[in-house]
Amino acid sequence: MPIIATLATASKKGFEGLGLPVYYSNLFIRSQTDYLSIPANSDLSPGTSAFTVEFFIYPNTTPAYQSIFSCGLSGTSSQGFEIALTGTTLQMVKYTTGGTLNAYNSTLSVTALAWNYIVLTRRSTATNDLQWFVNGTGDSLGTANNDFIAPTSLNTTIGVRRSTLTNPTDAYISNLRYRIGVGLSSAPVPTSPLSDDANTRLLTCQSATIIDNATPPNTITNNGVTVSTLAPF
To answer: Long-range contacts: 188-196, Cβ < 8 Å, 24+?
Structure first.
């Protein structure tokens, strides 16, 4: 466990006095009222482009289903998607225009009470071009050739399912980055905070306050989420 995590109760001033960097994550209490919300934005819609969502997560528990990143997911005719933790397994879900639920599961396990580096990437809409990575290890390939368009009209949430404000996350989440136009063939575990680049559409859970560090930044509404110095670096 890195020093920044084992000394999580120390003050920021105390860390600076030791000459150590201070990193941050966000704590989601298991409550339907604790989450982050980003307004509907066409920039968050990957359409048929490649995209990558990555983050660190420290699950406090592993209940049946907890929503981590809900990007325009609604149901019935929604074209958004959601990343969730089902026990110790990761899942990406979406509905087709006809209302059919599609699920893309990882066979790699997530460990509770430890930091896990998670990546979901789609390199293209070709067959077997969707892949999960957990702590640098790639899972079997899948296919998600959907046109994800719902974020143009529906908001995005972190820590709870956006449509019903249910299935809350009970975990620390750090350095959540969402990029469009980028698909990865490997995902080594970062050793320092993730950074903004030309493809970044959202970059959060890494600051002393809850903000979006992408350019341009999205407006993030904080609904009861607490900043923590428990971090993966």
So the answer is: 188/136, 189/117, 189/135, 189/136, 190/117, 191/233, 192/233, 193/23, 193/233, 194/54
**Ordered per-residue pLDDT tens for the chain, 233 residues:** 332 333 333 333 333 445 567 788 887 766 667 899 999 888 999 989 999 999 999 998 887 788 899 998 776 656 788 999 999 999 888 876 666 777 888 999 999 999 999 999 999 999 999 999 999 999 989 988 888 877 778 889 999 877 677 778 888 999 999 999 999 999 999 999 999 999 999 999 999 899 999 999 999 999 989 898 888 98
**How is 8-25 classified by DSSP, letter by letter?**
TTS-HHHHHHTT-----E
Torsion sign (Cα): 74, 80, 84, 86? positive
Please give the structure tokens belonging to residue 221. 């509404």
CA distance 129 to 134: 17
The count of residues in the chain is: 233
Q: Say whether domain 21-228 belongs to CATH 1.10.260.40.
A: no
pTM of this prediction exceeds 0.90: no
Q: Which two tokens stand for residue 202?
A: 């959202």
* Cβ atoms of 41 and 126 closer than 8 Å: no
